[in-house]
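Fold Annotation — chain and its backbone

Fields — amino acid sequence, structure tokens

___
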Amino acid sequence: MKKNKVNTDEKNIENKNIENKKIENKKTKNGKRKKGKVWKKILIVILLILTILAVYFIYNSIKIDGKVSLTGMLATAVGHDENTKKNLGEFQVLLLGVSTDQAGVTLTDTIIVASYNPNTQRAVLLSIPRDSYTGKNPKKATASQKINAIYNLTKDPQETLDAVNELTGLELKYYAIVETEALIELVDAVGPINYYVPMDMEYDDETQDLHIDLKEGMQEIDGEKAEQLLRFRKNNDGTSYPPEYGDNDIGRMRTQREFISAVISQTVTAGNITKLGEILDIANRNLITNLDFNAVKDYLPYAVEFSTENLQTAVLPGTTPDISSTNNVSIYLVDSEETEKLINELFYPDNAEDTMQNAENSNTTSNSQTNTSTNTSTNTGKVENTGANTNTNNLQKNQTSENTKTNTSDIKIEILNASGSNEKLQKATKILKDAGYNVTKTGETSTVATTIITNKKDIESDHIQNIKELLGVGNISNNRSKTSRIDIQIVLGRDFNN
């Protein structure tokens, strides 16, 4: 009996344990279900918030940029609306490059006016020759009257800015001094930069601890090489840039502008968005400037879609007189008349267009009055004849415009093979020749990933676009030079597979 009772008690205990486990399992399942429901609700809320944000960004992007774009998204992210860009004026700054190798010497041998208009997406780089004379009497010129010496003497960048305004007629308000260390750090942050070194460069100056050793061809330029490239003026044997490129300082200024153009084209891209904060931090730590970086940030959302096709570069026009007439001092005399024309063309194109339009309207009115007078005497004032004459004039204008367009066969093209394949070079050459273009020169250079099409002269943009379409690839760059012997230079990259 006792044994049976014990067995019964054990069974009862076992049954209770089973029931308890079932209850616990049920509670656990119910708990998981409740937690699952809570997470589903949280996930739904998160998705809803993301959807609302996406709709908000898309809506504001369209309002700001007229379409869904990276510019619109970035502008929305920093709190801009559709009126912000309209209220942003043209950004202009004087860039002063200073080397710090020689103790106590701070010559500004690089002087460039840079401007960017977010509304027109136009930019300008204007070089000011370092020997530009700022005095009144060239016959009594001194080295201290060269524009590059002003900062070294006064240590006040505002004095150099005032001198540039005096020479150009501009009203620049901002300056930025870029010292050697800042240049190296900035290029390393965004680089390396793919750039075609125009010639072999070999120069050594122990007093400045300056050693330049670069080979001609397409190269990846880091910060150290950038300093060598931008400071080069002549080789150890006295040779300098070839005449067609621009001797000595003219060649160096051209290299500076073209390298800056390459930096811009390879920096202001969607892929480098994450680096903008680092770039601004480097600038803030290293630059001597009166710029407000908070104001500069307002331009960044619109700069990411800038194309170097809209970049114009130039050098202040002038002459270098014989030193026998300038107190044995080598100076650069700025041509004030030509400078005024250039400044209007580069910085005030709308005014120039208005002037031309007014002149055309004046001529049209004069011609119309003449035609009306003639028609009145011969056709008893029938107005429709005047209209016919106007149409004829417009047709003649259009025909003249077509006639002045550069012929394909007149366009001289140089192709530098950076694809690593001679077969690709031959294929690209054949494509362009079959299309009627004059490929006058081909050569080899270090391999690069991306094809670059550079407009060396004022070749119409539709020709440049046509070449890009024929090749199927290509980043377009404008680096015009009046002395270039070719019209278009193509660096054929590995991306060419047409």
Residues 50-64, 362-403 have pLDDT under 50 and may be disordered. The radius of gyration is 33 Å.
